[in-house]
Amino acid sequence: MHEVAPLNPWVALAYLIAGVCFIVALRGLSSPATSRRGNRFGMAGMLIAVVTTLVTHEIASLPEIIGAIAVGGIVGFVIARKIAMTDMPQLVAGFHSLVGLAAVLVGVAAFLNPSAFGIIFPAGSPNAGLILPVSRIELGLGVAIGAITFSGSVIAFLKLNGNMGGAPILLPGRHVINLGTLAAILGLIAFYTAQVDAPSWVFWVVLALSFLIGFLLIIPIGGADMPVVVSMLNSYSGWAAAAMGFTLGNTAMIITGALVGSSGAILSYIMCKAMNRSFISVIAGGFGGDSGGAGAGAAKTDRPWKRGSAEDAAFLMSQAEQVIIVPGYGMAVAQAQHVLREMADKLKEHGVRVKYAIHPVAGRMPGHMNVLLAEAQVPYDEVFELEDINSEFSQTDVAFIIGANDVVNPAAKSDKSSPIYGMPVFDVNKAKTVLFIKRSMGGVGYAGVDNDVFYQDNTMMLLADAKKMVEEIVKSLD
């Protein structure tokens, strides 16, 4: 594609409006109450950007492009209709991989046919036909970030989808390997930029090493830290798009990519602070504990524990002044959010004050639990983040844990060998009574760590499918 009128003020204005729509969209997505409006602004901004690009560029085959857009739109619509909320994290990781792959394909196309992209020295110059140095930087960084995003997102997808284990895969000398690979990538990009007649193999080696390091960065990351990985890959996908925006000379791609990249990086930093993780260790890979995760997490089912029934839980909660509900991925798997809200409504009819405690990394992606509760129309003023509600557990009658484990595990504070050590967790053990819904005592959380809360004197284990157990509790509250 060629820009027909790069200085056309109407084109610049259209891209500016699209950029403002994207900014307003991000602002709207910061709260469940405004997320729908944010999505609409994002859709409007993308429509403006796409239409402007099609109108102001020379299109080799407009029917083919419109056909591709139609096919992609249909596929997206079908996925959006059929995808379960439990599969949303791996879907996001899969979409990130497609963004990275798109950046790689654009970069490869520009490398193979630079004249079509207008990134070559003009005729008559000593280096006529060769790629401009600034374009070499854009190409090198674009394909590198895109390849890292693609391979890293594929590994994240496999981990989130259960095709790979959640425990970290720790390679010997992984940090040296990662730093060496990254240094080689940057060195080759610098060489490719400085030498206008650099051999083509340099480009392909950069691409291959970038695919490799994306793989190496993600496999050492444990399951408890996967929400940060999703956020980090989101940032990478944005920077890849921005780099390709420079290659294509498309202002909208640069703006959009920069917004996604920067917002993803900020979110990753916020989540790292929430988990007491080093942001640098996220970038380097291999965080989440060096102990091997699952090795230390075999369920200790021989320890004494107390089992309760739905009737017991209903009686205890109906007599309470305050109940704090802590949802986790198990609630998502059982799709229990709607019946959970029904249970909360029943408790409020009994005069019980009900609150929801949401951990930043509960589930498999940032905001996973918030989305599920919003889907069930849980009032926003009943949902609280960790730092806002954690101090209330010591004055709470019942902590109701549904499908969570790692985010309520005191080992994060007491066991330095634990893969989740240092991660802030809910102090549910301080509540007068803990009701813990779990499928069986034989399993452990996604990080592969047993939980001492199961065996406390004030804990009653409710072993069943989360949705079925809550349904039985609701019946007992009638």
Automatic annotation (TrEMBL):
InterPro entries: DHS-like_NAD/FAD-binding_dom (IPR029035), NADH_DH_b (IPR012136), PNTB-like (IPR034300). Its EC number is 7.1.1.1. The keyword Ribosomal protein does not apply. The chain crosses the membrane at residues 12-29, 41-59, 65-84, 91-112, 139-160, 176-195, 201-221, 252-272. It is found in: Cell inner membrane. Residues 12-475 form the NADP transhydrogenase beta-like domain. Keywords: Cell inner membrane, Cell membrane, Membrane, NAD, NADP, Translocase, Transmembrane, Transmembrane helix. It is a multi-pass membrane protein. It catalyses: NAD(+) + NADPH + H(+)(in) = NADH + NADP(+) + H(+)(out). The keyword Secreted does not apply. It comes from the Bacteria. The transhydrogenation between NADH and NADP is coupled to respiration and ATP hydrolysis and functions as a proton pump across the membrane. Belongs to the PNT beta subunit family. This is NAD(P) transhydrogenase subunit beta. It comes from Sphingomonas plantiphila. The lineage of its organism: Bacteria, Pseudomonadati, Pseudomonadota, Alphaproteobacteria, Sphingomonadales.
